[in-house]
User: What shape does this take?
Amino acid sequence: MVACSIPISQAYTQGVSDIGSSPVPPPTTQCLKWLGHERWLVRQHAREHLRQRLLDPQHSDATLRTLQQFLNPPPIDFEVAATIRDLVETELERRNRWHGEDLRRWLSPSPSSEAHSPGAEALIDAMRQRYARSLLAWSQGNARGTDLQAHLNPLQIPADDCAAWAMLLYVDVRIAKANRNRLDVSVIGSFGERSTFGDRPSLLRMADRPARIAMVLAGPSMGPDLAGVPEADGLRDPIERLVEQWFVEVGQTRFPREAILAGLRFRRHAFALERCERVLRASNSSPAAVAVALLGMSKLAPERLDALYTRFEQDRRLAHVWQNIHSGPQIIRTRIDDVAIAAKLQRAALDPRDFGFIYLRADAATTYLPYSLGFIDESSRARAHAAAAAIGRLPKN
Assistant: This one.
């Protein structure tokens, strides 16, 4: 590689074998000058330098912008303009193609192209058609990933808009992935950079974004509604897979309770069970997360709770405080031991309501709403606990 301090003509008179020996690459502006050199080999060498810089994660975006600026207005030399235009078009095509391939990697059940589901392909087509301009600007480096994030508000997307929900989750996942692996940044056009919005309210809204998305995905009445999507359409599976990837890449360990609820809601049962075990194993898990983990494991793998009942039946930490129209002015307080006993009764095929859990509410994801397993006073709790203990060792269902 020719050092920028060595005249190009002198370097080539030294012999082709010496080219590339220098560890210092020439800058983009120098390569652009060399494109008009009288020697063919120098021009080819400059073109290859520019191509490599477009592929280099550290220089790709800056190089692309320099080439685009050099074409406006176009240089007088027609061959130089044609070379630069070919480099720019090739790079944009590569980036655009990468978006489709990357979407396919995240939405399809298998990395092999033969395993792509029709539903995933239909969803990818819908996403690329609707967000073609944003993806193109993103690929060109003219927009940042956080700018696209700002236009995808989880509190405003209709529940049945599968393409918008998929794009929201995909953008967040890719930004989080790029922030941990900077090699991805050049390919995805400044994915990992900070938003260009400079005002404090906008930055605060972006900071709150993961918490809002986690809340929306965990809530049964918010987020994408896939209940009405026919299984045959194949649209449910790729979105459910993106939900799991969002919690793995973006949420990580920050939203344990929401991760379990979302895993149950969107049928990512292996993921939900793993998060349940993680919460119950950790000593610093919040009471609300423990309550949900107990109910989640009771539904997915009740046999694994047999060795844990004794521990959590002694846990009197407050998990939820709730007030509803049926309880009147009283406040329902749910402790972890309340949830453990209710889960134990369910394991024995017994209805907790028969033992004094009179505010119990059913739930599709966790069987019982965790905050509905509490009591309005300690005497009611004591009677319910005593009734459950009176039947001795509960039979296993």
Observations:
- The longest strand covers residues 318-322.
- Residues 1-24, 111-115, 182-206 have pLDDT under 50 and may be disordered.
- Strands lie at 318-322, 332-335, 362-363, 367-368.
- DSSP finds 18 helices and four strands in the chain.
